[in-house]
Amino acid sequence: MTTKVLTICNGGNIRSVALARYIKDLNGIYINLQGDEEVIKYEAIAVGKDVMTDKSMDYMKQWADIIIDVSDNGEHFIGEDVWNDASNPELIKKMEELWKSVVERR
Fold it and tell me: Which of 56, 59, 50, 47 lies closest to 19 in space, CA to CA?
């Protein structure tokens, strides 16, 4: 079964993207025993709460099995965006720690 993960930050460009990439990188593609079906363990979509309508955000939240809000007022706030790049190694490390803590609570 695929778990759908919504990652949220303010602009949808750095923090949420870094987390979504991290989650997708965990993924790989798993092939069933018959070898005829590819299954993705995690789908992850990054969005920015400041650049979406409430209606669109509600739609995305209904889609998701897991919602991780790292925005400035989010439940999983990791600090203001000082990384300027979703592939910043320090940011990726923070996202790895965050993901592990979220998965452990499930």
Answer: 47
Comparing CA positions, the residue from 97, 83, 103 lying closest to residue 17 is 83
Assess contact for 47 and 19: CB atoms under 8 A: no
82 to each of 71, 78, 89, how far by Cα in Å?
A: 13, 11, 12
Burial class of residue 15 (count of CB atoms within 10 Å of its CB; 0-12, 13-18, 19+): buried
Closest among 47, 54, 44 to 11, alpha carbons compared: 47
pTM here is 0.89
pLDDT in tens, the chain (106 residues): 789 999 999 999 999 999 999 999 887 655 555 555 567 789 999 999 999 999 999 999 999 999 999 999 999 999 989 999 999 999 999 999 999 999 888 7
